[in-house]
Every structure is written in C-alpha cells, then in structure tokens.
Amino acid sequence: MAGAGPEGQFVAGGTDLYPNMKRRQQTPRTVISVMRVPELNQITGDGKRGLRIGASVTLTDICENETINRDYPVIAHAARTISTPILRNMGTIGGNLLLDTRCNYYDQNYEWRKGINFCLKKDGDVCWVAPGSSKCWAVQSSDLVPVMVAIGAKFRLASTLGERTIDAAGFYNDDGIDYLKKRPDELLVDIQLPPTNGWRASYQKLRRRGAFDFPVLGVAAWIQIDEGKNRAGETPAVPVGTLRVKNARIVLGGIAPSPLNIAEAGAALIGQPFDNDHIQAAAEAAYVKARPLDNTDFVMNWRKQMTRQYTLRALQELL
Fold it and tell me: pTM above the 0.85 mark?
C-alpha cells in the first residue's frame, strides 16, 4: 500500500468494491488483496475473555462459528441477514464494517449518473436527496455496524505508521462521503468484542425482501440487567418484569450516514424495570429521533414509523 500510494486500495471479498468499480464509483489503479493474510483470518477468545475476529473472516464463517453462535449470537444473526449465501461465502466481516454508504442517486451505473449530472458523492456538486445541503446524505447500510456500536466493539487498524485501536462508536462520521475515521492507507486488522459479562443484544432488519436486500432500517438493542446477587454471590430467581436495567443502548442503522445511538431510548430503560411499559417508552424515543430521508427503498415517513415497531421487536426479543 505504501508503494501504491493514494490510488491503491485494499480488497478482501470484493463484493462491495468490485461492483463499485464497474459503475466507476471507485476507481483505484491498484487493488491489494488481503484475503490470504493469516493474521486476518483468525477467531480467538470467547465470551468470558472477549473475542477477536480477523477482518478477512468470511461472513459464512461468522454465521457458522461455534463460539460466536454460543457467546455472541447477535453477531451470527446479523451476519445471516446480509445478502445471500453465495455472497456471504466471499464477503468478509471487515468489508461489511467498511461498507460504502449507499443512495438511490449514487448506486446507479455511470450513464444513469451522468444523465443527472452526477451527485455530490461522486463527480457532481449537488446532493439530490437534499439539494440545499452541502452535506452528502448517503446512508450507512451495514447490518453489523449498529450491532458493533451497540455492544461496544473496538477496531484495530494498522499502517506503515503503526497501529491504533478505535471504538466502533467513534469510527463512523455523519457524512456520506467522508464516512469513516480511517485513512486510506490503514488496514482494518481485527474486531475486538468485549466479554459478554451478562449483557444481551438483538438485531432487527427492515427490507423489502427476506434476503439479498440492504437494510433500510436496522435496530440493534443492547442491555445489561442488574442481577442483584445475594451475599452468597448467587442470582436469586425473580419474575420477569421486576428485573431492572443497569445499562442500555439502542442503535439505528440504514437511516443516516452513520449509525445513530439514541441516548434517549437507552435512558428510558436505565434504572427501570425491564417490562413492556418501559420498552414502549424506549421505542417511542427511538421513533422521535429517527429522521430517514428519501434516499433508499420505501417511503421515508413509513420507515420512520417502522423505527418504533422494530425497536419494540428488538427489545421484546430480549425480554
């Protein structure tokens, strides 16, 4: 990469980059494959110690890995919703986390985009979603990103300048063009998942078809329950609904250039009994803060309405 310079680009499975190159959305002169780098293809650890997943591990391997299914089932579930089995055999977890932002005016062939004089994200100077805005509103459309933000994952990056680790929550910019806090010369090495430590998480995805489609809304829910251990260090059996939430995060994907951590939704749960009344309050808070634009499939106002329903589904699954 140091030799290729600014016109070089890393590629793993290529399921995002190669179609973009065909449409001339991305035009690197040199692509550098990282699929066979051994360090990028390992899964080590478990739920007690935390898990490291190499960035080139395929989505199929994520879906089928015994440790991930046992200790981090939300990761395996979210990965199963991505695309199709054939593409999951090629696509990688790192590729999904670095997925290019998407938009109806951007994800078209070159001739179509030329016919509208291109768009702000590539070759043009107008965002057709919001023509009066100087910002690109292409949406973050990864299924794994809101999950990683919700559970508090970290990403390790490497370059000729050294290594650094960044929280998933701080890795994404609210800008459809400059959407990653990652330099082009940096390589995503691995994903570091925190120990499970009693937390639980779920993911719900809205799309037109039951397979293949990108999310037009994704909801990741993460909670920690205050287990109230007794003097012997045991967790007494208590009825569902009397358990109190120690911590919570609700993260929305597919409706903005970056994943949205809805603090108000988490606040509606923290310190409260984990019951349907407080789940309803959290879903309402997520609905209020969701502001999808007309840049993906489905009518944007309906997608906003679905934020309430899909947050309810995500939390009720945990209940």
Answer: yes
